[in-house]
Amino acid sequence: MKIRTEIGRWVSDYLARFGTLSLMALVCAFLALAVPSFINPSNLFDVLRQVAVIGVMACGLTFSVAAGGFDLSVGSVAALSTVFTAWLLVRDVPLVATLLLVLTAGALSGWVNGLFCARLRIVPWVGTLATMLIVVGPQFMMTEGGSQIPGGLGGEQPVMDFLGRGFLGPVPVAALAMLVIAAVSEVVLSQTRLGQHVQAIGGDQTAAATCGINTRRVLWIAYVFSGILAAASGLLMAARMGFGQVRIGEPYLMDSIAAVFLGSTVLREGRPHIIGTVIGAIFMGVMFNGLTLLHVPYWGFYLFRGIMVFVAVALSGFATR
Questions:
Q1: Rounded to whole angstroms, what are the CA distances from 264 to 60, 89, 202?
Q2: What's the rounded Cα separation, in Å, for the pair 247 and 252?
Q3: 124 falls within a domain
Q4: Pairing state of beta strands 171-172 and 167-168?
Q5: Full domain range(s) for residue 274
Q6: Which CATH number does the domain housing residue 240 bear?
Q7: What's the rounded Cα separation, in Å, for the pair 216 and 226?
Q8: Domain count within the chain
Q9: Phi first, then psi: what are they for 67, rounded to 5°?
Q10: What is the pLDDT along the chain (321 residues), one digit of tens a residue?
């Protein structure tokens, strides 16, 4: 009985720290054998390009989760960002001003989430669900009831086109943008006092308050970070597509949730962190790429999203036992 208990504990500890990395290694090995083109450098770089949106969105979600909250609005905020970007650019608003306005809109959505969840103490699932629904309205307002902002942006906006579809050597610019944003987020979350306070209230809000941390303000700021990075992911999406589309970012919510929880079992035993989140996002990209190469029908992608969310939460559960 004692040996069985020790083995169970070892398995649980292993899954808590290396579950995602082990699963990713197995998947990559299978795909390399089943579809040899998977390991072509061009395909691997394409995976990085595809995960840029998920990675940036998930980095923002990591802030709210690390603070003990949650943000269901990130996908809708990203969609709002694509529409708002297109709406501004087709009206000849300068690109720099467009970027600032879009990121400000993301910060405002995060501020509203902070108002609901930090100030008014509404349960995060309910408060951020309200924001998720609220931001759909302006999307339809800007498209005048349609599904897209008419007119393409790619050829008319070479900088946006370069951001979404360009390469520096063999490396996609969008992937580099994701890595830069992730690096800055990692520094903020792990090396600054704000990041330490975010993790402290996520670990034990009562203890953090006892230590003098303004838990409401820190949680509020975490939601603002989440909103800004959701808007940044929408900018990348608009740059890649060349237009703005209503509700286009909503499917990415499940992907970013899976990335955050998968990442929490990368070396940290259940604690959300940026490096793990990026690895989780890459894992999601690998799986989507594999499904495409294996010619899985479209409905299989929906099954995969649900299964991966379940697996991610299960692995995270091992880590927090």
A1: 14, 38, 13
A2: 10
A3: yes
A4: antiparallel
A5: 19-31+41-320
A6: 1.10.3470
A7: 15
A8: 1
A9: -85, 5
A10: 555 566 666 666 776 677 788 889 999 999 999 999 999 999 999 999 999 999 999 999 999 999 999 999 999 999 999 999 999 998 889 999 999 999 999 999 999 999 999 999 999 999 999 999 999 999 999 998 888 886 556 556 888 989 999 999 899 999 999 999 999 999 999 999 999 999 999 988 989 999 999 999 999 999 999 999 999 999 999 999 888 999 999 989 999 999 998 888 776 666 889 999 999 999 999 999 999 999 999 888 888 888 888 887 777 665 555
Question: Rounded to an integer, what distance in angstroms lies between the CA atom of residue 191 and that of residue 275?
Answer: 13
Q: How far apart are CA 284 and CA 174, in angstroms?
A: 16
DSSP bridge partners of 314:
none
Read off the amino acid at residue 290.
G
SS3 268: coil
